[in-house]
TrEMBL record:
Residues 289-460 form the 3'-5' exonuclease domain. Its EC number is 2.7.7.7. Single-chain monomer with multiple functions. Residues 626-831 form the DNA-directed DNA polymerase family A palm domain. The lineage of its organism: Bacteria, Bacillati, Bacillota, Clostridia, Eubacteriales. Belongs to the DNA polymerase type-A family. This is DNA polymerase I. SUPFAM superfamilies: 5' to 3' exonuclease, C-terminal subdomain, DNA/RNA polymerases, PIN domain-like, Ribonuclease H-like. It catalyses: DNA(n) + a 2'-deoxyribonucleoside 5'-triphosphate = DNA(n+1) + diphosphate. One of its GO terms (biological process) is DNA-templated DNA replication. Gene3D superfamilies: 3.30.70.370, 5' to 3' exonuclease, C-terminal subdomain (1.10.150.20), 5'-nuclease (3.40.50.1010), Ribonuclease H-like superfamily/Ribonuclease H (3.30.420.10), Taq DNA Polymerase, Chain T, domain 4 (1.20.1060.10).
Length: 867
């Protein structure tokens, strides 16, 4: 039986555009022409063509009014305006289809859906099997025994097949009733009203009883209650909506089925198209057809074959916290081998373990820090990783979700399934059968292996390979050491603090109850709101559906009205400290007496490291009770040593903007905020008051984050006019900063991204958004990201330099923590002086800049005692 495939061109192109536009890095060619939608469309088409249809057509909307607008003037009236970046790609997709000799049609007065409806009917009558590809639910009305409607799910990467049995199972409806469903419940995406107040649940119930909207209209007197009234009032709207939702199947087309016969590509034109629009991965795929995962022969072995060449290695790490996770097995993929060995068998295979430890045999992986640490905790060492796809992808697109399926799809690899399809999700998560493990992990290994050269090429093309090779890759080994070594914690100290704090919390509770005149659940916003705004009659209580707002910013404005308010704020602070840190940290201490955090190296868009499970970068220091938590962090050896960059972001600004006055001030160790106050208030340094310095400090840091005059006014307690005057004086004093800010904003508008000193990019789609607030956000991100990102890069380079110096001097002391601009070490007494020298030298010589970097040290018997 002949096969015909009919593609909803508008639907696919829209989905391809939004699937990647939201990621942040909008693909363009070297001339700045947007290509993300056509790229996604082309990838989907390649997948469709694997089914080798005999006939093929892509249908588009003509883009003008259709007969449906005559029935309803505001049909599709609620849809957002199509982005210019997408409009530009409609002509591109038509050109692309012409290069592939794929027929495409559109017809004035009708939608693409109507052309598909008409052709599908003709094809069925001709005895063909029909496949319809769309993202729209409306098309389900075309389903029949000979027509399958495939709906795109998750962008354009996954297709859901719909046959009559599917609709029966999902809705208990026949295909033709889909238009009745739309008639009753409407469709917000097309502005089809339906009957007001009727949702899907009610619509299905009515259709199960009455079959069609027309039949329902003849039995209106049977309907009871308020819903009956709504349906009687809106039945005409339901009938009209059904008519609008009905796909035409008799459009007067001027072509026949034979004209849709699938023809061969014009390879020369197609290759030229790919080159013009920088779609080199598609060009490569066209020139060198790729073996799919289904065509690869996998081996499940209990003893690994001999390995002498480099290979891709995937470790089956089961749990998210890889410090606590079991390892299921090891997948190996290379030109000489493709096998999976279970953990139990790998543990007995000493020859395989020697290969894993052999640094001369290089390995490729994804999130190699996780792989190395999890395997080490389970007794098997891995060395020799020299490629990490996670880091390469992160540098290329820092906003891309760190998910193997998402990442592989973004780089044009479509043979991987979502992990949850194999392992389940949430309560249904489970360890799959060994054969399923092998298939999945080897598919991942093949993906890493196949995409390596493409990602390396992209890094080099974007001049980011050095960032990957010289900073991120060596850093991941340092972080792995830090995580595995952990931080020693005195649990008894945490318990003592917990006991003391619990006593304070209990006392606060009694005081709050006494002031309230009754006992209540202080942690309940509803009960607290009633006490404050009804019983105590405090002002400005705003009641919502769930009760009064008792958010921190609301309570802070009420502090002067009643003593209970401050006590509630204190209660919240102390209970948070107690549960999250004093109790929470005790639960995180391993049997070795240490906490082993996880550093996220591929998460933030600025390049900063973050820490989770637990977050050791976020231990509060605003309150003395929070600071004291650091007393529990103690050395394994003799001392805790810490070095912190001094005013790193301001030094970066001075260097990037080449602000001579600030460079000179920093290099002569002047107090930078006093210097700024002197400059903008036009007074000698000796006459700068504390208030002037405070205001200058707020401006210095506010400028970095693109603070407005309103924001500055609120922070320093002056009028908006005064704040505006401060900012104007600041830019007049340091015009290089204003010139720099304007320059990076212009660059971001033109190129869609900004860069750090070490060429880390942050993509900023907001900068050209039609919405004013999002554009302003884009400007702030453009100004701040190169500064924050450069500071993050500097600290990473410093960590690498310090680690190298520690190895060269053969010290036993360890780097144990990274907290924002601070590095923390566990130091032996006899190594203290050399460690001070090593750390200071490594941090202050991290990167050549016009401004001298300055690192300030402190030492103590605990993290709290640092002086």
């Amino acid at each position: 039986m002949k096969k015909i495939t009919l593609i909803d061109g508008n639907s696919l192109l829209y989905r391809a555009y939004y699937a990647t536009a939201a990621v942040g890095n909008l693909m363009t060619n070297k001339d700045g022409i947007p290509t993300n939608a056509i790229f996604g469309f082309a990838n989907m088409l390649d997948r469709i063509l694997k089914d080798e249809p005999d006939y093929l057509m892509v249908a588009f909307d003509a883009g003008k009014k259709t007969f449906r607008h005559e029935l309803q003037k505001d049909y599709k009236g609620t849809r957002k305006e199509t982005p210019d970046e997408l409009i530009m790609q409609f002509d591109l997709v038509r050109e692309y289809l012409d290069c592939r000799h794929i027929v495409h049609h559109e017809m004035e007065g009708y939608e693409g859906d109507d052309l598909i409806g008409t052709i599908s009917r003709m094809a069925e009558e001709a005895g063909m099997e029909v496949a319809v590809i769309t993202g729209d639910q409306d098309m389900l009305q075309l389903v029949s025994n000979h027509t399958t409607v495939y709906r795109t799910m998750k962008g354009v990467t996954q297709l859901e097949a719909n046959v009559p049995a599917t609709l029966k199972a999902k809705y208990d409806l026949e295909p033709d009733q889909i238009r009745d469903l739309k008639g009753l419940m409407g469709d917000a995406s097309d502005n089809i009203p339906g009957i007001k107040g009727v949702g899907e649940k009610t619509a299905l119930k009515l259709l199960h009883q009455y079959g069609t909207v027309e039949n329902l209209s003849e039995h209106l007197d049977e309907l009871k209650g308020k819903m009956g009234e709504k349906i009687r009032d809106g039945i005409q709207a339901g009938l009209d909506s059904k008519q609008i939702a009905t796909i035409m199947r008799d459009v007067p087309i001027d072509f026949d089925l034979e004209s849709l016969t699938r023809q061969s590509d014009d390879e020369a034109k197609l290759a030229d198209f790919y080159r013009r629009y920088d779609m080199y991965s598609l060009l490569k795929k066209m020139e060198q057809p790729r073996t799919t995962s289904s065509e690869v022969s996998y081996q499940l072995v209990n003893q690994a074959p001999q390995l002498t060449k480099d290979f891709t290695l995937v470790v089956g790490v089961y749990d998210n916290n890889y410090h606590k996770s079991i390892v299921l097995g090891y997948a190996v993929y290379s030109d000489e081998a493709c096998f999976y060995i279970s953990y139990e068998d790998a543990l007995k295979d000493k020859a395989f373990q020697e290969v894993l430890k052999n640094e001369a045999i290089h390995k490729n992986g994804y999130n190699i820090k996780r792989e190395m640490i999890a395997s080490r905790w389970n007794g098997i060492e891995i060395q020799g990783y020299d490629y990490d796809m996670q880091l390469a992808s992160y540098i290329l697109n820092p906003s891309l979700k760190d998910d193997l399926k998402v990442v592989s799809e973004f780089y044009d690899y479509h043979d991987l399934v979502y992990a949850e399809e194999i392992f389940g999700k949430g309560a249904k998560r489970h360890i799959p059968a060994l054969a399923d493990q092998a298939k999945y992990y080897l598919d991942v290994a093949m993906m890493i292996h196949r995409l390596k050269s493409d990602l390396i090429s992209r890094l080099k093309q974007d001049e980011q390979y050095e960032l990957y090779e010289n900073i991120e890759l060596p850093l991941t080994y340092i972080l792995a050491k830090m995580e595995y070594n952990g931080v020693k914690v005195n649990v008894d100290t945490l318990k003592q603090q917990e006991k003391a704090l619990s006593g304070r919390i209990a006392l606060l509770e009694k005081e709050i109850y006494a002031l309230a005149g009754t006992e209540f659940n202080i942690a309940s916003p509803k009960q607290l709101g009633e006490i404050l705004f009804e019983k105590l009659q405090l002002p400005n209580g705003k009641k919502t559906k769930t009760g009064y707002s008792t958010a921190a910013e609301v309570l802070e404005k009420l502090v002067g009205f009643h003593p209970i308010v401050q006590k509630i704020l204190d209660y919240r602070t102390l209970t948070k400290l107690n549960s999250t840190y004093l109790v929470g940290l005790q639960e995180q201490v391993f049997l070795d007496g240490r906490i082993h955090t996880m550093y996220n190296q591929a998460l933030t868009q600025t390049g900063r490291l973050s820490s989770t499970d637990p977050n050791l970068q976020n231990i509060p220091i605003r309150y003395e009770e929070g600071k004291k938590i650091r007393q529990a962090f103690v050395p394994e050896y003799d001392y805790i040593l810490s070095y912190d960059y001094s005013q790193i972001e301001l030094r970066v600004v001075a260097s990037l903007a080449n602000v001579h006055a600030l460079i000179d001030a920093f290099n002569h160790d002047m107090d930078i905020h006093t210097k700024t106050a002197s400059d903008i208030f036009h007074v000698p340094v000796t006459e700068v008051t504390k208030d002037m310095r405070r205001q200058a400090k707020a401006i210095n840091f506010g400028i970095i984050y693109g603070m407005s005059d309103f924001g500055l006014a609120e922070q320093v307690g002056v009028s908006i006019a005064q704040a505006k005057d401060f900012i104007n004086r600041y830019f007049a004093t340091y015009p290089e900063i204003k010139e720099y800010m304007d320059r990076v904003i212009d660059f971001a508008k033109k190129n869609g991204y900004v860069s750090t000193m070490m060429n880390r990019r942050r993509y900023i789609p907001e900068i050209n958004d039609k919405n004013f607030m999002r554009r302003e956000l884009g400007k702030r991100l453009a100004m701040n990201s190169p500064i924050q990102g450069s500071a993050a890069d500097l600290l990473k380079v410093a960590m690498i330099k310090v680690d190298r110096l520690m190895q060269e001097h053969h010290v036993q002391s360890k780097m144990i923590l990274q907290v924002h601009d601070e590095l923390v070490f566990d130091v032996k007494a006899d190594e203290l002086e050399i460690m001070k020298k090593i750390v200071k030298e490594g941090m202050e010589s991290a990167y050549p800049m016009a401004v001298n970097l300055k690192a300030e040290g402190a030492i103590g018997k605990t993290w709290y005692d640092l002086k």
